[in-house]
Amino acid sequence: MSRCQIKSKNLSGFASKVLAAVKRIPKGKVTTYKFLARGIGCPKAVRAVGSALKKNSTPIKIPCHRVVQSNGLIGNYFLGKRKKVLILQKEGIRIVGNKIENFSKILYQFKNKN
DNA sequence: ATAAGGGCACCGC
DNA sequence: CGCGGTGCCCTTA
Fold this sequence. Notes:
Distance between the termini: 13 Å
Largest sheet: 2 strands, parallel
Helix content: 25-40%
Order of helices and strands: HEHHEHEEH
Structural class: mainly alpha
Radius of gyration: 13 Å
Shape: globular
Number of strands: 4
CATH architecture: Orthogonal Bundle
CATH superfamily: Winged helix-like DNA-binding domain superfamily/Winged helix DNA-binding domain
Mean pLDDT: 88
């Protein structure tokens, strides 16, 4: 079961779960699409997670900029990769080039819910 | 309803 | 160790 898609009012259940998970990310920390996907129960839906964040219409409530690639790279951002880096830096995260410094340290891993 | 795209991840060479 | 190609799932046109 664990269907990754549950109908909702506006956003798909999948998106809702993703957004909820992203909102759980503490400030000054970051997470990866992989952990995020795994956190919602769909470790293979890493790309779907990105798409879901893209449909996010409230970036203020949903710090999608705290979501980066599993290799420590910033990845992309619906507002622009450059913008994402700036925001992360403001969060107190050190970024070298396009990579996050101390990535493993600030990496927030979701608990294995379920 | 079908087709292509996308804010990735992993494996192989 | 670095780069390329493929795979998986959801969204939008």
